[in-house]
Amino acid sequence: MDFSAFAAKAVRNIGIRAGKKLRRKGIIATELPKTMPTVIDGTKYVCGYAVREVMPKDLKAKKYWIAGHGMGKTLDRVHDPITVSAMWYGTDENAGIIHISADIIGLTNFEVNIVRDSLKDFCEKSNCKGITISCTHTHGGFDTVGYWGQLYKLQTGKDKEYMDLLLRSLKEVAEEAYANRKEGKLFVGTVHVPDAQYDKREPVVLHDVLTRIRFVPDDGSTETWFINFAAHPNTLGGDNHDVSADYPYWLRKTINDTKKTNVLFGVGAIGAVDPGMYCEDKPQRTRLEGEALAKAALSIDNDKEMKPEIEILRQQYYAPVDNGLLALMATIKVCSSQRYACDRGDLGLALLTEITYMRLGSLQILCFPGEPFPEVIYGGAVSADKSATGKGPEINPKPIIDIVGDKDLLVFGVTNDMTGYCVVPNDFVLNKTQPYVEQGRDVFDRKHYHETNSLGYLTNQVYTEVVADIMTRV
Questions:
Q1: Tens digits of per-residue pLDDT, 281-325?
Q2: What is the spatial distance between Cα 415 and Cα 203, in angstroms, rounded to a whole number?
Q3: How many C-beta atoms lie closer than 10 Å to residue 118's C-beta?
Q4: Structure confidence by residue, pLDDT tens digits, 17-66
Q5: Per-residue pLDDT for 209 more than 70?
Q6: Label partner for 155 (CA 20 to 30 A): which of 145, 224, 331, 369?
Q7: What pLDDT is recorded for position 1?
Q8: Is the pLDDT of residue 2 over 80?
Q9: Interval 133-171: pLDDT, tens
């Protein structure tokens, strides 16, 4: 047995032991309560916006690990600052919700709940009915999950002082957005941007719709746009050592160079979906991607006004963990998690996480805790003769848009948790001797990296179960 095979077996056994230990302690995944939706309506929308930079003062004085490519790579310079921004969606009935956008790779549900706990007094005062944190998933930011430090030293990639600054900033930006609220109208518009995506893994399934949620204050002051598009902010590549929000920085800048606007950004179903606008010069590609999306957002001419009605439902659930390496990281506290023993999956281990449903007028939104592949949401998995496993799409769960019954469903990925990729079963392939440690190869000899950074084979099935259950209550 070679070292990788030995390592894969060892981490799997550690995961199994962790599940058994939790079971002995009585920490078991029992049935969770079904959350009922909260509906907020009124005669007008009341929205607010706030933004702030989240940058350490000692970037050159100590090591900060960059997230999203390889482990143990440092951030040495600053191209553009990391920011967090928040939008309050409410009505004149004096209730609402907070949706935050953060220029970070992701945030675990454990730390999302720390932010929520810090805002309990705020929620009582403001009548806030829900707090959602979407991450732009920039690969040019600080490690805020823990994966990208020095694992061989059992060292997390998170810096405590930076994490304290980040969590405090998320709290403060939420409070400030509420304080800045104004009455106005809310519109939703879309545009196709076909050249701004590249699917680097078959089957090629691209959802090239850019969605713009646009708040227009009655007093004629600055508009606020929340923009959503599905493409990894990873254009700077693995050799980059500059702090950067990647293409979302250029998206925001380009819009503001044309029209002073408050801009938030969130990614959609980004599993294996990279930005388009390819050129050899990576910083130029980053700029071109952001500019293309900005121009598309500015061109939208099909805005529809949304009725001032908001609905939100946040449903916790247990996600089975089959990935022994990710289970190991949680065991040694490289990353934060809430783990339970469970009866599903190979390790008998589950992660407590959540999916959030929101509705703004007629716009339905689902917020997922990881990086779903487009075919998970929209369908398009290939037939058995062309699939990675030799199995047909009939083994896959129903696409999410079919469960919701809405082809215009808006999806936010990497929201309220960072749980890795969600791959459809007929495209899910593991290394036969070193699962989750080394990439597998399919029947066409194609590499399968994404499974090594997924919770496991059951992720898609559990997604659909939770969404189907949510849709019976909204």
A1: 999 999 999 999 999 999 999 999 999 999 999 999 999 999 999
A2: 25
A3: 16
A4: 999 999 999 999 999 999 999 999 999 999 999 999 999 998 988 999 99
A5: yes
A6: 369
A7: 54
A8: no
A9: 999 999 999 999 999 998 777 789 999 999 999 999 999
- Within 8 A by CB and 6+ apart from 66, the residues are 73, 74, 75, 139, 140, 141, 142, 143, 148, 240, 241
pLDDT tens figures, 358-386: 999 999 999 999 999 999 999 999 999 99
Q: What are phi and psi of 99, to 5 degrees?
A: -125, 120
Residue type, 239: D
d(CA 274, CA 362): 29
Mean pLDDT throughout 230-241?
95
Amino acid at 305: E
Model confidence pTM above 0.85: yes
> Burial of 77 by CB count in 10 Å (0-12 exposed, 13-18 middle, 19+ buried)?
exposed
Largest CA distance in the chain: 70
3-state secondary structure the chain: CCHHHHHHHHHHHHHHHHHHHHHHCCCECCCCCCCCCEEEECCCEEEEEEEEECCCCCCCCCCCEECCCCCCCECCEECCCCEEEEEEEEECCCEEEEEEEECCCCCCHHHHHHHHHHCHHHHHHHCEEEEEEEECCCCCCECCCCCCCEHHHCECCCCHHHHHHHHHHHHHHHHHHHHCCEEEEEEEEEEECHHHEEECCCCCCCCCEEEEEEEEECCCCCEEEEEEECCCCCCCCCCCCEECCCHHHHHHHHHHHHCCEEEEEEECCCCCEEECCCCCCHHHHHHHHHHHHHHHHHHCCCCEECCCEEEEEEEEEEEECCCHHHHHHHHCCCCCCCEEECCCCCCCEEEEEEEEEEEECCEEEEECCCEECHHHHHCCCCCHHHCCCCCCHHHCCCCHHHHHCCCCCEEECCECCCCCEECCHHHCCCCCCCCCCCCEECCCCCEECHHHHECCCCHHHHHHHHHHHHHCCC
Position 277 scores a pLDDT of: 84
- Give the Cα separation of 23 and 232 in Å (integer): 38
What burial letters (b/e) apply to 6-31, b meaning 16+ CB within 10 Å?
ebbbebbebbbebbeebbeeeebbee
